[in-house]
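Budget justification aside, the reviewers requested a transparent look at the raw inputs and outputs of the sequence design task funded under Objective 1. We therefore reproduce one unedited record. The lines immediately below are the structure tokens for a 356-residue chain.
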């Protein structure tokens, strides 16, 4: 049985949060909102509950979970060693959408980190998440609350689609603020390595750390397996409908982009496919003459946070649109564009058409 609790994010009913904390303390699983996406929470100190998280999500045991803390008192029970660089980021960015990978404390059960000596940890910037961790009184593991391989959930409805009947409770506070998962950076190496692009930009990390951050191809959403990085071994964000991504070297000529996307759309229309086009606000009008195409607007190129917020919602909506294939415009990879493009490239399963 799954209980769904609607909660006001800014003025949460403490009795509901207390009830969910009790479920977590007794080894149950609770899906809860963060500022990025919904997480599937369990007590970090309860290996059976952590095992259930992997099983319920159908997640490979080698793919480690992020530990969520509500305050710095809990931090010392999670990590063994905190380099000076980490403190600089923590002071500026926590609570917030930044996960630091550091040497783990012996108190973190091996199942949490997939046997790795490192642990990912973050302090979420969401009043309900913080209250839930505080009342549970232990750090919570919380992967995104989706079935493994699917898009991360930005609403409680998405969690219900994937996990209803498998979790004890879902806390519903509506749509999450940012819509993409936290930036993950490994600070145990020199230079630091970006594991997942996210709301905290590489450019920001580099200027705060005063050093280059390595951005491997897999963190840009391109297929490149690295034995040291679990994330690079798995596929993510599978949409219900095949996706083709059209990329350019630069996006100064949007008419050209729209022409290339239209060409691909026409190719599939000619084959008798039902086609969708995922376009930006700036380019959507170019597709009005493609009458048989279902047009989906993902947000403005001038407000990439809008695109980031919509990307998983759009990917999840594709299979209810009665289309056989979706053609998606690419975005400039600078700034937040990197996080967006890494999601779209993975969702396309490398089905990428590159035009000069
Ligand atoms: O925004 C988020 O980070 C959300 C919310 C719920 O907090 N959580 C989330 O967790 O996205 P998850 O498990 O879906 O993604 C965590 C990613 C995975 O790709 C995992 O491989 C990587 O972080 N990761 C976690 N711990 C790691 C570690 N110790 N070393 C390397 N990578 C790690
Ligand atoms: Mg995930």
């Amino acid at each position: 049985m799954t209980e769904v609790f609607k909660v006001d994010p800014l003025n949460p009913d403490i009795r509901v949060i207390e009830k969910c904390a009790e479920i977590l303390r007794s080894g149950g699983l609770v899906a809860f909102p963060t500022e990025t996406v919904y997480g599937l929470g369990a007590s970090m100190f309860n290996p059976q509950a952590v095992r259930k998280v992997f099983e319920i999500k159908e997640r490979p045991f080698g793919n480690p979970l992020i530990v969520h803390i509500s305050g710095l008192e809990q931090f010392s029970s999670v990590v063994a060693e905190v380099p000076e660089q980490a403190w600089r980021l923590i002071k500026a960015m926590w609570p917030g959408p930044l996960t630091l990978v550091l040497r783990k404390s012996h108190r973190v059960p091996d199942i949490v980190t997939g046997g790795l000596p490192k642990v990912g940890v973050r302090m979420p910037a969401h009043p309900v998440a913080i209250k839930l961790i505080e009342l549970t009184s232990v750090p919570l593991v919380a992967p995104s609350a989706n079935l493994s391989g699917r898009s991360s959930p930005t609403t409680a409805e998405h969690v219900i689609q994937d996990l209803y009947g498998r979790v004890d409770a879902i806390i519903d506070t509506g749509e999450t603020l940012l819509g993409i998962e936290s930036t993950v950076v490994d600070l145990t190496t020199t230079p630091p390595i970006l594991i997942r692009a996210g709301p905290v930009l590489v450019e920001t990390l580099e200027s705060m750390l005063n050093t280059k951050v390595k951005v491997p191809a897999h963190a840009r959403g391109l297929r490149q397996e690295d034995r040291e990085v679990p994330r690079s071994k798995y596929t993510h964000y599978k949409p219900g409908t095949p996706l083709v991504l059209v990329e350019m070297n630069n996006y100064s000529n949007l008419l050209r982009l729209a022409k290339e996307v239209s060409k691909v759309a026409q190719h599939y229309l000619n084959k008798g496919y039902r086609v969708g086009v995922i376009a930006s606000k700036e380019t959507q009008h170019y597709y009005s003459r493609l009458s048989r195409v279902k047009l989906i607007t993902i947000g403005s190129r001038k407000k990439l946070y809008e695109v980031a917020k919509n990307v998983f919602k759009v990917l999840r909506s594709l299979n209810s649109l009665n289309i056989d294939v979706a053609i998606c415009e690419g975005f400039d990879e600078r700034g937040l564009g990197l996080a967006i493009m890494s999601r779209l490239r993975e969702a396309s399963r490398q089905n990428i058409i590159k035009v000069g």
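The first strand starts at residue 3 and ends at 6. The domain at 3-233 is CATH 3.90.870.10 (DHBP synthase). Computational costs for records of this kind are itemized in the attached budget.
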